[in-house]
Amino acid sequence: KENYLDVYNLEFQYRLKDTETDMYYNLEPATLANSIDLAVLAKYMWFDVYEEVSGSKEFVKTYGPRILMLVGSPAINPQSGTIVVGLAEGGIKVTLLNVNTMNVGNIFALNDDYFHTMHHEFSHILHQTKSIPREFQLLSLGHYDASNWQDRDPRVVNSLGFVTPYGSSEIREDFAETCACFSTYTDEQWDQLMT
Length: 195
Known about the structure:
This protein is an alpha/beta fold. The protein contains eight helices and six strands; from the N terminus they run H-E-H-H-E-E-E-E-E-H-H-H-H-H. The chain has helices spanning 5-8, 32-54, 57-63, 107-126, 134-139, 154-159, 171-184, 187-194; strands spanning 11-13, 67-70, 75-76, 83-84, 86-89, 93-96. The strands form two sheets. A four-stranded mixed β-sheet has the order 1-2-6-5. Strands 3-4 form a two-stranded antiparallel sheet. Helix 2 (32-54) packs across helix 3 (57-63) and helix 4 (107-126) packs across helix 7.
């Protein structure tokens, strides 16, 4: 309440509400200990950072989600075998999944599994009110593959201008993945990607 609702008008949900989840997936609740850790990390590494960069709490309050929901397990798509680790729904809610496997001692896993997802999902919310630049939309036109992105070699998609295979699935995901990678990669990782 003090760190999310009072400041950002955001409801932090860590108790699993089945009415708030997709019944297509078999999900489990997040543990209390990991929920507490992720609440602190999300505040410090996501909301506080956006506030500092924008110079105001109003940016996050205006463009941020109204609900941040935690789910303990990943959502596994039985048809493709892909794993969903985050969702942004209607510009209102961001769901972070697979919280129960979180290890606060592994910064690389935190970055890949949670911070990347936070920036990715925020990008989806942002581009619902702010258009993706037309120039960006034209960069990799003709190279998207919505149905087989998970089978694409990362080196091949990088050579086509995408930062990740998932980014090569469609323009919206390309934009969100680019924002997330740019926000979470080290200079060395970004340089390697550009090479």
